[in-house]
């Protein structure tokens, strides 16, 4: 097992009716700014629940955070925070609203000229970033229990993230009932995102870490069972709850502790979203099957374990089992209604060159060996046309 430090300070309050606990979680004298998206919370009653819970200390509001939150929008919220002196941010919604809250919390006290610089140098995320609390309504990103925030910049068509110990939420409320109103596309996106967060930390090379392996397999198996159930029965509380807890566990640092991590699928997916506006999970579903096929020799040991333990594939030679496991993965995404080809989203052929050259310019170290080349990226995407 590799060395690691694990610290996760996020208090999780999980279950039906848990938004009512907000007054206990937010500091009594806090001046709160609530950050939310395009209005789903007003339509599904989550907004009303938050306002009712905080009636003794009503929050001010900043709505209109876009899916794939925009830097330009976040900066408007930063102005409001500075002008009115808010000292607590409450992100309410999916990963985009939560990430925006974390970014705004950091940018509001950032001393440098350009808060975007935090994205390229995480050490710049201020230690005194404003405290953030979350009410999650879309299980997918794990943002509710990690220090990550992904923000997109319209001007340069960049989508970058920071990950900082100063950006963990103080608490996150997870009420599965708030997810009943998700359109099936977003529910499916959530399953795929959580699945691929898990594979990014599992489908690498063996580190003799059987506990982390089995934790990852537990998440994958549960997603395979519960994902279709939730799509068929959107108001099945237990299935919703299981999905929500899987997504949180997939990216709260636990399964990635002490093992190699990949994240190249995410890096490539972020470029696809930045350039062509496809959903985050859609971008991952396109890239992952190509990544696994292209890297199958280097990932062979873990792919064989995955084939056997997750897809129960025990027959045939090794090559065939690996190939079948990758096919089953792609079939699973498609069965949820998530397209897995560039052509499913009308992405032009030039995307292959464009994504590869943009990643090359960023000098990102890609993959668990940190050595994927521009050409590898091209070959992977060429497999996905
Ligand atoms: O904007 P509103 O009106 O709230 O509607 C949203 C949005 O249109 C809607 N929605 C959310 N909850 C709902 C609901 N509609 C009905 N009922 C509900 N209960 O769903 C749409 C998508 O929401 P969004 O927050 O954008 O989705 P998601 O949670 O998938 O977040 C995606 C963002 O998170 C980033 C992605 O890159 C992307 O920017 N990620 C963040 C990570 C992190 N912080 O660790 C890691 C991930 O890999 C990911 O990159
Ligand atoms: Zn993701």
Could you describe the 3D structure shown?
The structure is a single chain. This protein folds into two domains: 11-178, Rossmann fold; 184-382, Dehydroquinate synthase-like, alpha domain (Up-down Bundle), CATH 1.20.1090.10. Helix 7 (184-202) runs parallel beside helix 9 and helix 11 runs antiparallel to helix 13 (318-335). It is an alpha/beta fold. Strand 6 (148-153) and strand 7 form a beta hairpin. The strands form two sheets. The chain has a six-stranded parallel beta sheet with strand order 1-8-5-4-2-3, covered by helices on one side. 51% of the residues are buried. Helix content is 47%, strand content 10%. It has helices spanning 22-25, 40-43, 46-53, 71-84, 95-107, 117-120, 184-202, 210-232, 237-250, 264-276, 280-294, 300-309, 318-335, 351-362, 374-382; strands at 11-14, 32-36, 60-62, 88-93, 132-136, 148-153, 158-163, 171-174. Residues 37-41, 44, 67-68, 93-97, 99, 137-138, 140-143, 146, 148-150, 178-179, 181-182, 186, 189, 193, 251, 266, 280 line the site of 5,6-dihydroxy-NADP (NZQ). Zinc ion is lined by residues 141, 193, 197, 266, 280.
The rough form would be described as globular
- Tally the helices: what do you get? 15
Oligomer: single chain
Total strands:
8
Main CATH class of the largest domain: Mainly Alpha
What's the rounded overall pLDDT mean? 97
Provide the domain count. Answer: 2
Distance between the termini: 37 Å
By CATH, the topology of the largest domain is: Dehydroquinate synthase-like, alpha domain
The whole-angstrom Rg is: 20 Å
Order of helices and strands: EHEHHEHEHHEEEEHHHHHHHHH
Strand content: 5-15%
Spatially, the strands of the biggest sheet line up as 1-8-5-4-2-3
């Amino acid at each position: 097992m590799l060395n690691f430090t694990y610290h996760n300070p996020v208090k999780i309050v999980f279950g039906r009716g848990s938004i009512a606990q907000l007054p206990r979680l937010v500091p009594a004298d806090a001046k709160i700014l609530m950050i939310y998206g395009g209005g789903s919370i007003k339509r599904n009653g989550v907004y009303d629940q938050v306002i009712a819970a905080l009636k003794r200390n009503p929050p001010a509001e900043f709505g209109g955070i876009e899916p794939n939150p925009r830097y330009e929008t976040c900066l408007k919220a930063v102005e409001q925070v500075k002008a009115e002196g808010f000292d607590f941010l409450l992100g309410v919604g999916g990963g985009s609203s939560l990430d925006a809250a974390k970014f705004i919390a950091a940018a509001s006290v950032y001393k440098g000229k350009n808060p975007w610089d935090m994205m390229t140098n995480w050490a710049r995320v201020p230690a005194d970033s404003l405290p953030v609390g979350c009410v999650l309504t879309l299980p997918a990103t794990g943002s509710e229990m990690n220090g990550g925030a992904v923000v997109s910049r319209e001007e340069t068509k960049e989508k970058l993230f920071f990950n900082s110990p100063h950006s963990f939420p103080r608490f996150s409320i997870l009420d599965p009932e708030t997810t009943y109103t998700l359109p099936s596309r977003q529910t499916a996106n959530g399953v795929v995102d959580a699945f691929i967060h898990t594979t990014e930390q599992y489908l690498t090379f063996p580190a003799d870490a059987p506990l982390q392996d089995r934790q990852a397999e537990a998440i994958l198996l549960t997603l395979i069972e519960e994902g279709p159930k939730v799509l068929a029965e959107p108001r099945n509380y237990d299935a919703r709850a299981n999905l929500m807890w899987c997504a949180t566990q997939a990216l709260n640092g636990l399964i990635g502790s002490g093992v190699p991590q990949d994240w190249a699928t995410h890096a490539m997916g972020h470029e696809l979203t930045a350039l062509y506006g496809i959903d985050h999970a859609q971008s991952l579903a396109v890239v992952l099957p190509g990544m696994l096929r292209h890297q199958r020799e280097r990932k062979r040991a873990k792919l064989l374990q995955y084939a056997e333990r997750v897809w129960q594939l025990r027959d045939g030679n090794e090559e065939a089992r690996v190939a079948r496991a990758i096919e089953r993965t792609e079939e699973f995404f498609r069965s949820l209604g998530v397209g897995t080809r560039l052509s499913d989203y009308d992405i032009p052929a030039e995307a292959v060159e464009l994504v590869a050259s943009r990643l090359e310019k960023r000098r990102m170290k890609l993959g668990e060996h940190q050595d994927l080349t521009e050409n590898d990226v091209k070959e992977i995407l060429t497999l996905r046309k």
